[in-house]
Structures are given as structure tokens and as C-alpha cells.
Design goal:
By secondary structure, this protein is mainly alpha-helical. About 70% of the residues lie in helices and about 0% in strands. This is 50S ribosomal protein L29.
């Protein structure tokens, strides 16, 4: 049986793209973190902060979409 919270309707393309971008950013943060291990001075924290800001923006867009639907 399908869980009652699941929906079978199609996601709009822009929502699907946001979900994909958010997942890609999370993977990129993981990659940056692994590459930065062992480095003494690195600007990786700035790059990670930029990615986290974008993830937060995407999440808020998706949450606002849920509230307006």
C-alpha cells in the first residue's frame, strides 16, 4: 500500500530542478569537506558557506510553495 502522505502527481519542472540542485549542492559540500581534510589553510569554509546559503534559499522556496499550495 502507498503511504497516505505520498502523492502520485507529477512535480513541476522548476520544483524538480530545485530538488536536484539541492541534492547536488549537498554532494558538493561532502566532496569539498573530504578534499579539505589535512589541509592547514583552506578557503573551503567560504565555499561551503556559499553552498549552505543556496541550500537554505532553495529549502525556503520549496517550503513557501507547500504553504501556498
Amino acid at each position: 500500500a502507498i503511504n497516505g502522505t505520498w502523492s502520485l502527481r507529477e512535480l513541476p519542472d522548476n520544483v524538480r530542478e530545485l530538488l536536484i540542485e539541492r541534492a547536488a549542492l549537498r554532494a558538493e559540500i561532502t566532496t569539498l569537506t573530504v578534499k579539505a581534510q589535512g589541509l592547514k589553510k583552506s578557503d573551503v569554509s567560504v565555499l561551503i558557506a556559499d553552498r549552505l546559503r543556496r541550500i537554505d534559499a532553495i529549502t525556503s522556496l520549496l517550503e513557501n510553495r507547500k504553504c501556498n499550495a
